[in-house]
Amino acid sequence: MRQTYIVIVAAVLIVCSGFGFFYFMKIIPLKENLTFTQSSVQNYKEMAALTKKSSADGEVNAINEETLPKQPEIESFFVKFQAQAAVHQVYVDTITRVNRSQNSSLNANSYTIQLSAKSTQEITDFIGDLEKMERILNITKFSMQTGSQASLSLTLYSAKK
């Protein structure tokens, strides 16, 4: 009779520890990704509302060409890009040139970049620092593929000659 109680208690402990392990390994990271995605969506909605408001107010988004590089300087940008990634322990897997546009008053070079890191937070911190670089760039698409991989579409601008 006593052995039955020991077996029942052991089984309950095993089941409870299994649920706890599942919760900490699967549910909590999923909640973090969901929170990050929701905050990103909210930020993009706010940016879209501000853009819509500024265009409705008739504001012109003029770019001072003195701040733009005269040449695309792609190579030096990606050297700094990879150095910044190394600081955050983010690895650049691939850089693929998507297209080159010369239709407007600016030259635009678009790239798709695959990143990997040990955690989502490292990638998020790297993207935050990337947006602070002294270079006119536009991140048009950012997506987390798994907990440790991300993909982003990046456009670099330079002045026309």
Automatic annotation (TrEMBL):
The keyword Transferase does not apply. The chain crosses the membrane at residues 6-25. It holds the Pfam family PilO. Coiled coil: none annotated. One of its GO terms (biological process) is type IV pilus-dependent motility. Keywords: Membrane, Transmembrane, Transmembrane helix. This is Pilus assembly protein PilO. It comes from Sporolactobacillus inulinus CASD.
